[in-house]
Amino acid sequence: MNPTLIEEIVTDEPNPTPAAALTGYARRLRGTLLGAPAAFLLTIVAALLAVLPIVYLAGSDPATAYRALAHGSLGNQNAIAETLIQATPLLLGGLAVATAFHAGLFNIGVEGQLVVGGLCSAVVGIHAPLPGILHLAASVAAGMAGGALWAAIPALLKAHRGVHEVVTTIMMNYLAFSLSRYLVASDGPLASTTQPSATDRVTDSARFALIWTPTRLHAGFLLALLVTALMTWYLYRTPAGFRLRITGANPTTARFHGINTRRVTVRAMLLSGALAGLAGAVEVLGLYGRYYDSFSPGYGYDAIAVALLGQLVPFGTLVAALFFGILRAGSVELAATTGISREMIGVVSALVIGFVAVQPAVARLLARVLRRTR
Amino acid sequence: MNDLLTMAVVVSALHLAVPLIYPALGGLISERSGVMNIGLEGMMLVGAFTGTAFAYATGSPWLGLLAALAGGLLAGALLAVLCVTLRADQVVAATAINLLGAGLTAAFVPIVWNVDGTSPPVHKLTAWTVPLLADLPGIGVIFSSLTALDYGAFLAALAVWWVLFRTDAGLRLRACGESPEAADSAGVPVLRTRFLAVTMSGAFAAAGGVYLSLVSIGLFQASMTQGRGYLALAAMIFGKWRVWPALLACLLFGLADAVQLRLQIASTLFPSELLLALPYLLALLALATFVGRASAPAAVGRPFART
To answer: Which residue in the set A106, A171, A305 is minimally distant from B91, CB to CB?
Structure first.
């Protein structure tokens, strides 16, 4: 469980996998004083500066835009609650991406897993005749199972046939969207008679309680915080988490030490899918009370940015999810007052991912300059 | 149901295959040089958008096509800077390109056209009737319904095959993808070769994207590529990183798409929402059954740096 042990093993490897290079970089960052928060802030500032052209092109100016964004996300009780509501699926999705990443897997299928998770939790939430908290627990479990199921096919293909998970998880995304559209289409098997493109309402016993009335903030947010703590424990304090990280850091070493890397790969992907499914379940059981087709505005893709900005650790993912929660919540007022498209969030996500990807190069460059000046 | 394989379906299959063939060729060039290109989807959107915007501004779809290719080169060069020059994780960097392509093009629609989501219609590239061939009985209809961009896809496949597998430059490019260290010690400029290959792949992906906007429907729509960049990638993998098998895989996916469209009209047996998933399902099955780890270029995904 010694963190320097992984460090040694990774640096032993002449050609670390790219994912290992990035996780290794994040680990070294955390080893330095203030390195992690500095990298976090610089990434955000760079991304927000880089979207300035869009702000101007949309006929607005930065001051107005940032004021609208801040007011829409933090200006009053309701705005703060909306920020936390938006951060909830981003946090769970971010944990899903980060967990897979630690095992050397890039799960772009979070969006599809979230959709299937939401669907499964809605079905159990509507139909299962269970009392009280049991009903909620069963619905949440169904959501996690649905997400894990959707990740199982890419997981098995990766572990046993060596098919790269990126293409397969994307294909699973499109299959999930089709399935969802079909199930809640006007004559679909799960369609509600009163609400278009949605299922019926989930029974009250399967709903998350509201925790900050009069806002919509629900107990799903607290569950997400609990899961964040659990994932920290799992990844860094259990043998299973150690095996997962060692497999991602250096699969060859892991195999030489008797770790069944195939099994670890499959388990990591299932866990990642379950977390994504939980994100969907929380939205359905907490926020909406029913499954809406395309309820997710792309949480699964933003989750990649959340995990990378959070330097792939659960606590960092929480902070990053709050940042993107602010963006998502504030974008409504931003669009209304300045006309800046809400697609801007997707651009910020992309920029954050890009900037995180080049950080090791920037760090290398800095180190070289420092060496030369010394 | 019995008229599933009419000439209309064949033509429609070709129309649906071409926007896969271009990005598949682009992916092939990039991956053969050692850079995994998952960013095809975003580059396609860049091509589709710039093509439509310039066709709208100039009134000429041909200028739109040129602009799309230029936009694709830019997007490709951006990925090359990230992956080749800065040695970023190729999958992560390409994901950034995909989200950037999707986000930027969607955000620019209201800026350029003052509407959300969909551009107004623009002039399409018109079909070119081949003299004599178009008069043939039966298959003649094919030669009166294809555009220059359709023929271009097959010519491009021939050109890519020729350059990659029949010229010295192609051998050097493939060497960079199999063993960059060996290529480097033989005097091949690995970084420059990879940079060019990735940049070129952007233009190919953009050609596929602009086909959708200026041939298929004549306008731009946010995220109109619908995963075709990834389907093209699946076709390329299914084709084991070879030109002709990849081309066949694209035609197969195109045919599946054409058949499902036909089924939507001809039969109420299957719900259309599920039929739409057919190409993705086929791609998944193709990846599951046929792929072999050994056929990928040995160094794909691994950044190269002289030590």
So the answer is: A106
Q: How far is B234 from chain A (nearest CA, A)?
A: 7
- Interface touch B89/A344, C-beta < 8 Å: no
Place of tokens 């958008």: B49
Size of interface A-B (CB pairs under 8 A): 153
Whether residue B271 and residue A354 make contact (CB cut-off 8 A), yes or no, is no
Residue indicated by tokens 């996690």: A144
Residue B62 sits at the chain A interface (C-beta within 8 Å): no
pLDDT digits (tens, 9 = 90+) for A126-166: 999 998 899 999 999 999 999 999 999 999 999 988 888 99
**Pick from B126, B122, B119: nearest CA to B149:** B126
Residue B100 phi, psi (nearest 5): -65, -45
Torsion of CA A19, A24, A25, A30, to 10 degrees: 130
Tell me the mean pLDDT in the region A111-131.
95
CB contact at 8 A, A97 and A107 = yes
Q: CA A122, A124, A127 angle in degrees (round to 5)?
A: 105
Task: Tell me the torsion sign for CA atoms B86, B90, B95, B101.
Answer: positive
Report yes or no: B107 at the A interface, CB cutoff 8 Å.
yes
Distance of alpha carbon A74 from alpha carbon B17, whole angstroms: 49
* B299 has a chain A CB within 8 A of its CB: no
Asked if the Cβ–Cβ distance from A171 to B287 is below 8 Å, we say yes
Q: Residues B50, B68: contact at Cβ < 8 Å?
A: yes
A32-55 pLDDT, tens digit per residue, is: 778 888 889 999 999 999 999 989
Please name the residues between 261 and 290 in chain B that touch chain A, using a CB distance below 8 Å: 271, 273-274, 276-277, 280-281, 283-284, 287-288
Return the structure tokens found at B113.
């056209």
Q: Which residue of A has its CA nearest to B234?
A: A167
> Are the Cβ atoms of B96 and A173 closer than 8 angstroms?
no
Residue spans of the domains in chain A: they are 3-373
Joined together, the tokens standing for residue A50 give 């880089």
Question: For the domain A3-373, what is the CATH code?
Answer: 1.10.3470
Give the model's confidence band at A7: pLDDT under 50 very low, under 70 low, under 90 confident, else very high: low
Closest residue to A166, CB basis, from B38, B96, B281: B38
Buried b (16+ CB within 10 A) or exposed e, A212-243: eeebebbbbbebbeebbeebbebbeeeeebbb
Q: Are B234 and A167 inside 8 Å of each other by CB?
A: yes
- Residue A21: is its pLDDT beyond 90? no
B-chain residues within 8 Å CB-CB of A345? 103
Domain boundaries, chain B: 20-243
Tell me which residue in B100, B301, B303 faces A354 most closely, judged by beta carbons.
B100
Widest Cα–Cα separation across chain B: 63
Q: Report the amino acid identity of residue A69.
A: L
pLDDT digits (tens, 9 = 90+) for B86-135: 999 999 999 999 999 999 999 999 999 988 889 999 999 988 888 888 88
Contact A321, A91 (CB under 8 A): yes
